Amino acid sequence: MDSQASKQYFLDLQTRLIAAFEGADGGSFRHDPWQRPAGGGGISRILEGGELFERGGVGFSHVHGDRLPPSASAHRPELAGRAWEAMGVSLVLHPRNPYIPTVHMNVRMFRATGVGEPDVVWFGGGMDLTPYYGFEEDARHFHRVCRDTLNPFGEQYYPRFKRWCDDYFFLKHRNEARGIGGIFFDDFSELGEEGSFALTRAVGDSFLAAYLPIVERRRELPFGPRERDWQAYRRGRYVEFNLVWDRGTLFGLQSGGRTESILMSMPPLAQWRYDYQPEAGSPEAGLLTDFLPHRDWL
């Protein structure tokens, strides 16, 4: 598979996503190209203070190096020491309205090369939803799109990637899910290079259909200080996961990536309170009891 064609897909995906988000928000994403001294670079697109999205980032990166960083070779120790190339698109959107969930999506390709050895190529990605207030309709819609996206490649993939997502986006130190999940896959190559990339593209291409209908359903709901306070508290969990457990964050920092681009997924405002528990029977408590525990949404 031609690396240039793969790169063009990811660049086109970033462009399509930005156009959709700017259309929904009315604001413009900042265009911030960057170069990595150790090899490669990317384009960070960031929106702050938008009417709809309080903060949103859509990043493209294409980086390479002489030796795989530990986070990339942890599950493939036989590749330690090889040269590598990685490219992909990653996004996080933090809406202003607490009734609209935060969302994350990424799709990526990784290639390890060695003198006299065949290239080893694998893919990863997925999308997951992090609501502050639970709506069954939204959760089912998001998971339905994920399932329908993967079913053409095999009906085993949605339940498998859903479990993977549930297990991955989990704050072990709190014994708590980050959100209601979605799909997640990593180190994926079992459909061959072309087939695995086709599945990865399908995930990227289906994101807008999974998320924007939820945005449109919730964007006009009125909210006040109580909802914003809860949103900021739950955003603290998002920060904890990204800084403690996320492999993408670790890879970016270990590989000498651009810190501003790696951490543009952080929410603009977050807060922590010691041993806080929402009032029993409240909508805030319902998120914890009815939505965050792993369940079958379909």
Automatic annotation (TrEMBL):
<feature type="binding site">
    <location>
        <begin position="256"/>
        <end position="258"/>
    </location>
    <ligand>
        <name>substrate</name>
    </ligand>
</feature>
<feature type="site" description="Important for dimerization">
    <location>
        <position position="173"/>
    </location>
</feature>
<comment type="subunit">
    <text>Homodimer.</text>
</comment>
<feature type="active site" description="Proton donor">
    <location>
        <position position="104"/>
    </location>
</feature>
<protein>
    <recommendedName>
        <fullName>Oxygen-dependent coproporphyrinogen-III oxidase</fullName>
        <ecNumber>1.3.3.3</ecNumber>
    </recommendedName>
</protein>
<keyword id="KW-0963">Cytoplasm</keyword>
<feature type="binding site">
    <location>
        <position position="104"/>
    </location>
    <ligand>
        <name>a divalent metal cation</name>
    </ligand>
</feature>
<dbReference type="GO" id="GO:0004109">
    <property type="term" value="F:coproporphyrinogen oxidase activity"/>
</dbReference>
<dbReference type="InterPro" id="IPR001260">
    <property type="entry name" value="Coprogen_oxidase_aer"/>
</dbReference>
<comment type="function">
    <text>Involved in the heme biosynthesis. Catalyzes the aerobic oxidative decarboxylation of propionate groups of rings A and B of coproporphyrinogen-III to yield the vinyl groups in protoporphyrinogen-IX.</text>
</comment>
<comment type="similarity">
    <text>Belongs to the aerobic coproporphyrinogen-III oxidase family.</text>
</comment>
<feature type="binding site">
    <location>
        <begin position="106"/>
        <end position="108"/>
    </location>
    <ligand>
        <name>substrate</name>
    </ligand>
</feature>
<keyword id="KW-0479">Metal-binding</keyword>
<feature type="binding site">
    <location>
        <position position="143"/>
    </location>
    <ligand>
        <name>a divalent metal cation</name>
    </ligand>
</feature>
<keyword id="KW-0350">Heme biosynthesis</keyword>
<comment type="pathway">
    <text>Porphyrin-containing compound metabolism; protoporphyrin-IX biosynthesis; protoporphyrinogen-IX from coproporphyrinogen-III (O2 route): step 1/1.</text>
</comment>
<feature type="binding site">
    <location>
        <position position="173"/>
    </location>
    <ligand>
        <name>a divalent metal cation</name>
    </ligand>
</feature>
<dbReference type="Pfam" id="PF01218">
    <property type="entry name" value="Coprogen_oxidas"/>
</dbReference>
<dbReference type="InterPro" id="IPR018375">
    <property type="entry name" value="Coprogen_oxidase_CS"/>
</dbReference>
<feature type="region of interest" description="Important for dimerization">
    <location>
        <begin position="238"/>
        <end position="273"/>
    </location>
</feature>
<feature type="binding site">
    <location>
        <position position="94"/>
    </location>
    <ligand>
        <name>a divalent metal cation</name>
    </ligand>
</feature>
<keyword id="KW-0560">Oxidoreductase</keyword>
<keyword id="KW-0627">Porphyrin biosynthesis</keyword>
<feature type="binding site">
    <location>
        <position position="90"/>
    </location>
    <ligand>
        <name>substrate</name>
    </ligand>
</feature>
<dbReference type="InterPro" id="IPR036406">
    <property type="entry name" value="Coprogen_oxidase_aer_sf"/>
</dbReference>
